[in-house]
Amino acid sequence: MLGSIAVHVDGEPVHVGGEKPRRLLAMLVLHRNSVVSGDRLAEAMWGDDVPETGTSTLQTYVSRLRRLLPPTVRLIGQAPGYRLETHPTATDVDRFERALASGLESLEHDPVAALARLDQALAEWRGEAFAEFADEPWARAEGARLAELRLLASDARLDVLLKLGRESEAASEAEALTVDHPLRELPWRALLIALHRMGRQAEALQQSHRYRMRLRDDLGLDPSAEFIELERDVALGAAIRPSSSLLVSASPAVSAAVTSAGPVPAPPAVDDEALIGRDDDLAAVVGLCRTRRLVTLVGPGGIGKTRLSLGAAAALAQTGPMRCEVVELAPVRDPASAVAAVATQLQVQPQHGRSVSESVFDVLGHHSMLLVLDNCEHVLDTIARFTEQLLRVCPEVRVLATSREPMALPVETVYKVPALPVAAEGTDLADQAASPAVALFLQRARNASADLPADAATVAAVAELCRRLDGVPLAIELAAARTRSLSPTEITERLADRFELLAGSSRVSDHRHRSLRDLVDWSYQLLDPIEQLLFRRLSTFAGSFDLEAAEDVCGFGDVPRNTVAPVLAVLVDKSMVQASPGARTTYRLLETLREFAAVLDTDETAEIARRHAAWILDICRRAQHGLHGEDERAWLDLLDALFDDVRLAFRSSLDAGDVATALGIVVSAREHAIRRLRYELIGWAEVAVARVDVEREPLAPAALGLVAYGRFVRGEMEAAIDIGERAAALADACGADAAGLPQRALCNAYVFADMASQLVPALARLVDDAVASGDDARVAHACYMRSLAETRAAGADVGSTWARFAEQAAERCGNPTALAQALYSKGIWSAVTDPAAARALLLESERVAQQVGNTWFMLFARTENLWLDGIERDPLDALRDHV
User: Fold this and answer.
1) 526 pLDDT band (50/70/90 cuts)?
2) Per-residue pLDDT tens digits for 628-656
3) At 8, is the pLDDT very low, low, confident or very high (cuts 50, 70, 90)?
4) Residue 215: pLDDT above 80?
5) pLDDT above 90 covers what percent of the chain?
6) Which candidate, 528, 561, 569, places its Cα nearest to that of 406?
7) Right CATH for 1-164 from 1.10.260.40, 1.10.10.10, 1.10.3720.10, 3.40.50.150
């Protein structure tokens, strides 16, 4: 891994193959002796473009790789993926780290042995870690860690060379390192010492000046106190003892303890269970802390920021090269006391004539360390100013902070802590059980002495509960604690009252984390009144929304439209709203936050619900037109994404007595519901129609037509015909535009009821109304239906004429569903004379429908194709091939 990915067996190189098998090997070696899921391996190999054959192709690569590995390395399958078992010296990384550790250990008492071990460690490197994959997200953190260790080995080697009196060699290597890493102080110090000992005092001072200028130009900083002292010794011609160690004061791995009144405790230990599902996050944060001066973990309350920061601190403290100290700021109520809390935790004594901040800087300015500032959000302004000064005057200090919003400093790197992943509903049982959120719940339930069965029903119930809790670790743990008295299914059923249900009982936890309500209320109280108001208004959205939607629904009164964007940005920064970047950024509230806001007292509930319903109605109307054009897929996907809001708007309109809006939503969203098989909307139509005087409501005929279509789908032909004929009569009587829905339902029902005499005029009316509407997608649909009926009743010649009309209309409008229907009708009449051509046309119809996401028509075409295939050969064989 320390260079391009390569395999050697018995000292001889083995050809691994092309890019994909090399990616697979790199990912497995990176996570050696741990299970890597098939999904993670596929993502590493193909990114977002995993082929349909990804699973089988991955298995093929794994099989080939097994044959290349030496007997001492085993690649075994282990759910949910694979594990590469290696011995302690099988990889160059392991050999490098063992040799480095041995060299550092021998540094003081046996420099000759130390040099040999350090040379052995550095000899393992053949180039940049992971070489061609170094910039891949999955390799970046480990690559940064290894690069830092390589520099530590180089620094240690300079130290040993100076101890052994090999100044000329040390000077050459140090100068090369200053070129490659001009802001690292240790190589410059080594260069000054080596030149000074060789009697080249003037040259040493020139190099000192170069470093000062580079540091000042690039960072606006001065050198450390150690460097200044060394510079003074060189200028005065003072002797520098060969035994003095560069690493004693310059390397985090061996730095002395912080000057203080007493010993500072080590970072609190984090048990492995607390970091379930956080392996990738932990590696990323550790990598960032090694390379960045300020890293801030942000996210909503209970997401696991503190645990992740402590896990990173512990990992850095254990593996080096970094000393870590943790300051807990949650108990600090007064922002003015925040810096004093830092000083107290570090046991720094204020000095005479110096402020508390300056006293801290005086101490930390002499040491390399990672300072963890936990829970900064309520004292953020004070801590941000302190951190900015700290980083400016203490160049060897790095800061890892946790907060519900960033500090907004120029040097800050923000890491958004995600929720724990939960396997999607309907996925394999093993995948659900292995998903981090479920694993955390089951472990915490076992800790609570709950005897949960490990059966499929329990795992599915736990996965659903974790999805409802948004994968938030604290909420999951509070729910798991309830398994002493309730099953996961019972807990899920009671989540409507989650704030009472999920009240914790721990006597030692932070007061903010003892209940879900305390957790959310802490964040809510940190908002200013305008931010609180917009947060409450945003809770009306059931799912995701964009900025325009937020402005339409929430931009009025005390939060005018032109202030929604900046206030929304603040809510995102404060982790009260989640943002998902894309071509258009979308936003959402975690379900727990949404329910908290929804129950707050407000006199705006009715107005917000009305504006929300009006917004949804407008989108549904635009989508209904869009579904008849070329951008059909985009509109289908949009309404899919908004369907929870569509449902909410329908219900809230009915509850408010605004049946006209409710009917408008149903009628406008009908085509999406049919094409994506969301037949619950037909039930909405029945409920809404029952609440109006159908003879006075202009939308009633269309809604009744939709009800009639629903009865046809359920096979209730008599009811479909009765309701459809009533809807058609109402439309004629009041001159309403029923969008052809009554005739559509009637034509379908007449076909299946074998009512030819009624079918012919109904089809003619369907076509005439479609042509009169000027909507070519409607024309294509009407001609497609007439083609099917004419092929059956009058023969292929007549059917083909109407199929050509459907095809012409589809070409004019460019609508994918219209094209699929034209192909289908062409396939049906072709089946009379050329079954092979018919099957090809039906396959193309199925493909077009599937590509646009029209599930209804895709299944329709597939069924017809299966029927034709079953005529030509064994029906069971045909069924196996098509299902």
Assistant:
1) confident
2) 999 999 999 999 999 989 999 999 999 99
3) confident
4) no
5) 39
6) 569
7) 1.10.10.10
Q: How far apart are CA 827 and CA 843, in angstroms?
A: 9
Give domain limits for the chain.
Answer: 1-164, 272-416, 429-517, 527-599, 774-883
Amino acid occupying residue 859: L
CA atoms within 13 A on the CB side of 152: 26
Beta-bridged to residue 397, according to DSSP, are 369
Domains 1-164 and 527-599 share a fold: yes
Radius of gyration of the chain from Cα atoms? 35
Question: How far apart (Å, rounded) are the C-alpha atoms in residues 700 and 695?
Answer: 8
Beta carbons of 100 and 253 less than 8 angstroms apart: no
pLDDT tens digits, residue range 223-265?
A: 877 788 888 888 888 777 654 556 533 333 332 222 232 333 3
Top pLDDT among 707 and 831 is at 707
Residue 656: what pLDDT?
94
**H-type alpha helices, 320-404:** 338-346, 356-364, 380-393
- Rounded Cα distance between 343 and 333, Å, is 16
pLDDT at residue 28 tops 70: yes
Cα–Cα distance between 496 and 476 in angstroms, integer? 15
Buried b (16+ CB within 10 A) or exposed e, 760-786: bebbebbbebbbeeebbbbbbbbbbbb
Q: At what angle do helices 816-830 and 835-852 cross, to 10 degrees?
A: 160
Residue matched to tokens 């007064």: 334
How would you label 547-557 residue by residue, b for 16+ Cβ within 10 Å and e otherwise?
eebbbbbbbbe
Given a contact cutoff of 8 angstroms between Cβ atoms, the answer to whether 571 and 630 are in contact is: no
Give the residue-averaged pLDDT of 480-485: 78
Model-level pTM? 0.58
Check if CATH label 3.40.50.300 holds for domain 272-416. yes
- Angstrom distance (rounded) from CA 7 to CA 16: 7
CATH fit for domain 527-599, picks 2.30.42.10, 3.10.350.10, 1.10.3720.10, 1.10.10.10: 1.10.10.10
* 631 CB burial (10 A radius; 0-12, 13-18, 19+): middle
In the chain, what's the furthest Cα-to-Cα distance?
116
Range among 66-70, 147-151, 718-722 with highest mean pLDDT value: 718-722
> 238 CB contacts (<8 Å, ≥6 apart)?
232
